Amino acid sequence: MRTSTSFCGELLDLVRERNPLVQCITNDVSMNIAANVLLAAGASPAMVSAEEEAAEFAGIAAAVTINIGTLWAGAVPGMKGAAREAGTAAKPWVLDPVAHYATAFRRQVVSELLELKPTIIRGNASEVRALAGDVSQGQGVDSRDSSASARGSALTLARRHRCIVAVTGDTDFVTDGTRSAVIEGGSPLMPKVTALGCALTCLTGAFAAVAPGQPFEATIAALALFSVCGEDASHRAQGPGSFQPLFLDALAAIGPQRLDAEARISLQ
Amino acid sequence: MRTSTSFCGELLDLVRERNPLVQCITNDVSMNIAANVLLAAGASPAMVSAEEEAAEFAGIAAAVTINIGTLWAGAVPGMKGAAREAGTAAKPWVLDPVAHYATAFRRQVVSELLELKPTIIRGNASEVRALAGDVSQGQGVDSRDSSASARGSALTLARRHRCIVAVTGDTDFVTDGTRSAVIEGGSPLMPKVTALGCALTCLTGAFAAVAPGQPFEATIAALALFSVCGEDASHRAQGPGSFQPLFLDALAAIGPQRLDAEARISLQ
Amino acid sequence: MRTSTSFCGELLDLVRERNPLVQCITNDVSMNIAANVLLAAGASPAMVSAEEEAAEFAGIAAAVTINIGTLWAGAVPGMKGAAREAGTAAKPWVLDPVAHYATAFRRQVVSELLELKPTIIRGNASEVRALAGDVSQGQGVDSRDSSASARGSALTLARRHRCIVAVTGDTDFVTDGTRSAVIEGGSPLMPKVTALGCALTCLTGAFAAVAPGQPFEATIAALALFSVCGEDASHRAQGPGSFQPLFLDALAAIGPQRLDAEARISLQ
């Protein structure tokens, strides 16, 4: 077990060096901000999701991310095809089960996607609690549970699906079912900017792409980068509107040393 | 009839207190900015539109908004299902008939949606004039008629469909067919930022969600909030690009007293 | 052959005077920024793409632009219908073959669109090289070839399809197969902001709309406007996040004289 968290800076360097091609099958709200987050951090986003090409494209992508935010039936074959291809090729894929509890359709699609064995699941506390089968206050896409309250659910989920689970919120929690990490930082402005969580899912894919066999560390590094840059941007922002450009600037400007120095990660 | 407009601040407080879940079936241009406008103002947006879940989700949403900006045939069943469910559950729903005059397809879909009895219709002057059957200069999505020229059309529409009609533009006009209000403010920069009108439609849904039985007041309050914050942001903006983050900051920062003090509303 | 490039300022004036209605069939990542770029520059964007109305809408639009960034099978009939209608009505239409080399589906759709004779093709170096049948390093949507390396490919393509070809990147290159122009300017921040190239495709449509019979000059003017405003914004930006609002402000603020004075165009 690693006791230092300097792998965060190392992985950030690798993202910038290798510029991994991340296939983002994401929702229509997050498309633009997710692509900008990946570009700012140093990765190469590609929003390729159609049934006709998603699986084929997963063959050239370095990682796949799948988000059900604006789900429709026509999107499901592309999601499954890309996830299956990622599995076959042993490439990481990340699942973001946005508001999966809200409708029968979402619950069904998420259960089918879970069978395709995501490498990483990232969600807010309401999503992770509900996915583990625990009581959740979630209604829409915003969490109505504290992130600390979802840690037990995250452990359950990680063990059940043999994957990494990340709960993001006021503090973040990452676990592989055995090891875990708490990441502090960020800003109360972040949930006031739509789709930042969705963008973080895509960024997690970028880090996982450059850290084969280390999805736990990759997830921590992506979350730490978000937290440090979010906190930094919030100090200069006047509100959720000015936060967004400042946050992208911070993602592009930060170096590995500063990331390692400012990340507040407790490995457990 | 109310002679004071302090209900605007009261409703803003209610939006922040209740954080209403607003189901926004909106176009692909406006998804991100509409969600950010709702979050900044204090509501909880959910962009849920697919046939498989839109009606079910309307069952948990506090209001529904429907915008035909990037209409396609596959979107229509979800729109109708959500509108129908809102009607059954006596929840407010808002129609934004973007450029409905432009094609036969749009005209047909809007006429079908009108049969489902929207609580509120919000459009620009060209859209409202054409919807009332009056001569309109509209071609694309931008208005080519002055908002003042659409007041008679708005009254006609409101009486015909027994709903609130809001015409937004250089000045705004709201009517329930009997009472009416003129709202001044805003900025010439606002039509230079895409999809702000669409975002306002969603925001109107948020206000209607917390004002059952008062869609006239809710619409005025949403428009007044937009006008005050738009004017405020325009004083500091250097152009349409810097306007957008400043506008979101203003929406998040404004308090009820300031809204009431600065809103320029003439009730008639 | 024109030796002065003062047509750039003249065409910018015409865009603002005529406010051309540009039908943008573009990808879901670029929708918002493309519309904002067109509004800032003075045009009127309309994102109308569905099979049910795209061809009909092309009948009222002044130009059509087609971008395959987030292609799916349901989008193809609308693309073809609009392109065909533009051809019949002798209106300009612009093709942006995003990452066409990445999958069989994209290659097939692009070959079908090429048969409908685009007036202008705009792409990055990897896209233009691959489209001409030359070796390309392209994988995802970001270019991995230098723009200078694609000049021969652009000439080949322009002659083969009797159209204008624009390669954009660190320097831009425009050719009609005989004449050519190199445009310098812009900023290394621009490829770090998603979908700016897609927005430029739409802007090229706006310029072509006001310059009938002069698509070569229209393309140069659109690219010169982007380069001058991009360079201007980059001087004040702190990174890719703050670049975007500054860039939109610059597009709205620039006058024709300044465009002509600052554009760095070599006609050849």
UniProtKB/TrEMBL annotation, chains A, B, C:
Q: What class of enzyme is it?
A: transferase
Presence of the UniProt keyword Magnesium in the record:
yes
- The organism named in the record is Pseudorhizobium endolithicum
> Which Pfam family, an example, fits this chain?
HK
Q: Which UniProt keywords apply?
A: ATP-binding, Kinase, Magnesium, Metal-binding, Nucleotide-binding, Thiamine biosynthesis, Transferase
Pathway given for this chain reads: Cofactor biosynthesis; thiamine diphosphate biosynthesis; 4-methyl-5-(2-phosphoethyl)-thiazole from 5-(2-hydroxyethyl)-4-methylthiazole: step 1/1
Named cofactor requirement(s): Mg(2+)
Q: Which domain of life is it from?
A: Bacteria
Q: What is this protein called?
A: Hydroxyethylthiazole kinase
UniProt binding sites for ATP: R122, T168
Its function? Catalyzes the phosphorylation of the hydroxyl group of 4-methyl-5-beta-hydroxyethylthiazole (THZ).
- Cite a single GO MF annotation: kinase activity
Q: Which family does it belong to?
A: Belongs to the Thz kinase family.
| Catalyzed chemical reaction(s) | 5-(2-hydroxyethyl)-4-methylthiazole + ATP = 4-methyl-5-(2-phosphooxyethyl)-thiazole + ADP + H(+)
> Which EC numbers does the record give?
2.7.1.50
Q: Please tell me where substrate binds in this chain.
A: M47, A195
HAMAP family for the chain: Thz_kinase
